[in-house]
Amino acid sequence: MPANLTPEFLAAEEEYRQAQTIEDKIAALQKMLATVPKHKGTEKIQADIKRKLSQFRKELQKKSGPKHTPHWVVKREGAGQVVLIGPPNAGKSSLVRALTNARPEVAEYPFTTREPVPGMMYYEDVPIQLVDLPPISAEFTERWIPQVIRAADLPVLVVGLDDPAILEEIEFVLNFLQERRVPQPRWLLGNKVDMPGAEETFAALTDLYGDRFRYLPVSAMTGANLDRFREIVFRELDIVRMYSKPPGKPPDLSQPYILKRGQTVVEAAALVHRDFAEKLKFTRLYRPEGGAGILVERDYVVQDRDILEFHI
To answer: Based on C-alpha coordinates, what's the Rg of the chain?
Structure first.
């Protein structure tokens, strides 16, 4: 039986002959397999294409080796992930150094940070991951930055109040995010508020952008408003702390369980032990201020710093 090969198949076959890489050969063979007429006269051709595809795919797998996590992916830790974004020399690295145990490089020249640098910031007893990102700039911006921002719980825009081009820098960052459909930051940190003229610049920004942002002037150098920033992040993450109290024993206040605001007693029980939710008979609620425990229902919404005693 004649093969009656189509022009599309012949064109794909020519692509295969001209292909220089394994990837291109695989793509051409896939086109050939898709366009070859399916009848008894082409069975041998189909088998040959499939054999070659299998061979090249094995070669490609050996060539690529095991897959690795991209260098820019930051493993999430703590109660939430907050990323600092902004233009060059805004002082993001200095803020991360001041707020966490991380030690990103700090220098006067731009583009010091080329990789994400995570650190752990604490609001009271709540660990929150703070990530320093490379700058977003018309001069150069890392391609992977939008993906890191999308994966985070909270993006925060940081600008240097000593930057003479601060308005142009802010507009470039916002346009960059909008064009890539990245969530816009709700908070703007005006860093370097200790510098001459910084307070006037900060006031001008709040007048210009109005309710576009929520604002906080800070200084990584003097520590101004850094405690306030910790509190703001905790509130923005919309989380609550819960402490567990074994029956007849004092509560363990050394490390809280973290829940999203609105979660209930039964969801809290599952955090302590996966069997608790199913076997839960009743729960007593205590408060850090002391006092007798009160019975609460399974659908009671946990409040920040509740102490729960689960009975199973």
So the answer is: 29
* pLDDT single digits (tens) 99-131: 998 876 665 545 556 789 999 999 999 999 999
Q: Do residues 99 and 189 touch, judged by C-beta distance below 8 A?
A: no
Task: Residues 81-236: name the CATH superfamily.
Answer: P-loop containing nucleotide triphosphate hydrolases (3.40.50.300)
DSSP 33-85: HHHS--SGGGHHHHHHHHHHHHHHHHHHHHHH-S----TTPPPP-BT-EEEEE
Same fold, 81-236 and 239-311: no
- What tokens were used for 135? 């700058």
Round to whole Å and give the CA distance between 276 and 244. Answer: 12
Under DSSP, is residue 168 helix (H, G, I), strand (E, B) or coil? helix
CATH architecture of structural domain 239-311: Roll (3.10)
- C-alpha to C-alpha distance for 42 and 168, rounded to whole angstroms: 63
Every domain of the chain and the residues it spans? 7-64, 81-236, 239-311
Q: For 252-302, write each residue's pLDDT tens digit.
A: 898 899 999 999 999 999 999 888 888 899 999 998 888 888 999 999 999
- Provide the 3-class DSSP secondary structure of residue 118: strand
